[in-house]
Design brief:
This protein is of the alpha+beta class. Strands 1, 2, 5, 6, 11 and 12 form a six-stranded mixed beta sheet that branches. A five-stranded mixed beta sheet has the order 7-13-10-8-9. Strands 3-4 form a two-stranded antiparallel sheet. Helix 5 crosses helix 8. The protein is flat, with a radius of gyration of 26 Å. Strand 11 and strand 12 form a beta hairpin. About 2% of the residues have low confidence.
């Protein structure tokens, strides 16, 4: 067991004791012994929490340091480090000749970068190609654009704590009177690492051998489209069973439901009004392209389009000064459908385990003088909600 996991489990055990004592004394004053134990448990929790934070900082610093060292090796020109051009050449060597056909020099580069002892588990793509895929994913799917991406070096459960202390507030207390007690509500969500694979892409040996052919452009396009279609759909509407918990299911429904076949200005006002101002301050809308054009047609009471000011001066159109993210995996306006989201979309956390890998299949398409390529990545997502609902949704009436 890692040190970080052990520390988190110790912290969780203390929280369990706090929760049990809180439940046992709910509705009555604590005894002096219970009060002493309560204070000690909170002190123990704070100490455990600081230990977890310190270890998390160390792990993050260790990861960043390793990435910097790797980046320095990739960009060095003195011949002693791992240069980007050398690795890209080795990657092409792997694509052309497979795991058993790569040169000893290429194999050494793969092992140096990822600590691989064998190539059967695939080869990490070059940094330049990985960056292209990540950018393409952000452009393709609204969830990667709107959410907060957490990158980890391993795929173990990632526990994100939540604390809701919104009911706690200062009050006037007379001299020599006891202060009131208010325990914050602690919780947590767990991010896993679900493996997403692209379909197998056939690539002819002629293309691989053509030095003028832009292999990176081909791979970044094929892999990003495939990953974007699959991952973004689950991050949007996944049910959390064997896949991410999508933002639609986790969002809080607006108190008023729009009509089955339309969205009005009043519906948008009610949606925005329902989001706490601490989240609305950084709020954005999310909807698909069809809904966008339906909203663009909405007029105010004077007959003016509500987005007229934005389109007139050339700035991106907004609703009540708030921007929007397009996500074509959201549903169209329709009976029982969720068509519009609003809130602090950055509270949706996307966990990605570094990095993309590519597998080369030698025999599957040999009769076509082609090889098969597919990539895989490990991803999960969840809306981080401590209890005050950062994202709300418009759910249309069923009829």
């Amino acid at each position: 067991m890692s040190k970080l996991k052990s520390l988190k489990e110790s912290r969780a055990a203390i929280f369990t004791q706090i929760d049990e004592l809180r439940t046992a004394t709910d509705g009555r004053e604590m005894t002096s012994e219970e009060e002493a134990r309560w204070q000690q448990l909170f002190a123990d929790y704070e100490k455990a929490d600081r230990a977890v934070e310190a270890e998390e900082r160390y792990v993050e610093i260790e990861r960043r340091q390793a990435e910097r060292q790797y980046a320095a090796r990739e960009t060095t020109d003195n011949g002693s480090g791992l240069q980007a051009d050398e690795y890209r050449s080795a990657f092409r060597d792997y694509l052309q000749h497979g795991a058993t056909g790569v040169s000893p020099e290429s194999r050494a580069l793969f092992e140096q970068r990822a600590g691989l002892t064998g190539l059967s588990a695939g080869v990490l793509v070059p940094a330049t190609l990985a960056e292209n895929i990540e950018v393409a994913l952000k452009a393709y799917g609204g969830m990667f654009e709107a959410g907060t991406i957490l990158t980890t070096t391993s795929g173990g459960d990632l526990i994100l704590p939540t604390v809701n202390d919104t009911e706690s507030k200062a009050t006037v207390v007379a001299e020599y009177q006891q202060s009131t007690k208010s325990a914050p509500s602690f919780g947590s969500v767990t991010l896993k690492a679900y493996t997403y694979r692209t379909p197998i892409v056939p690539v002819s040996l002629e293309l691989l051998q053509d030095s003028a052919f832009d292999l990176e452009a081909l791979l970044s396009g094929l892999l990003s489209d495939s990953f974007g279609r699959g991952i973004n759909a689950d991050l949007t509407s996944g049910n959390g069973t064997g896949k991410p918990s999508g933002i639609v299911g986790a969002a809080t429904a607006c108190k008023t439901a729009p009509a089955a076949s339309a969205v009005t200005l009043d519906d948008i006002i009610e949606l925005v009004k329902g989001v706490d101002s601490s989240y609305a301050r950084n709020g954005r809308f999310m909807f698909n392209r069809n809904t966008l054009w339906a909203l663009v047609k909405i007029k105010d009471s004077t007959g003016r389009y509500i987005w007229q000011e934005g389109t007139r001066d050339g700035t991106p159109p907004t609703l009540f000064g708030k921007g929007y993210v397009l996500n074509d995996d959201l549903e169209d306006i329709g009976a029982g459908k969720t068509s519009v989201l609003f809130g602090d979309l950055s509270k949706y956390r996307i966990r990605m385990v570094k990095s993309f890998r590519v597998i080369r299949l030698n025999e599957l398409l040999a009769e076509y003088l082609s090889i098969g390529l597919f990539g895989f990545a490990r991803v999960d997502g969840v809306l981080l909600d401590a209890g005050t609902h950062p994202v709300h949704k418009l759910v249309h009436k069923s009829a």
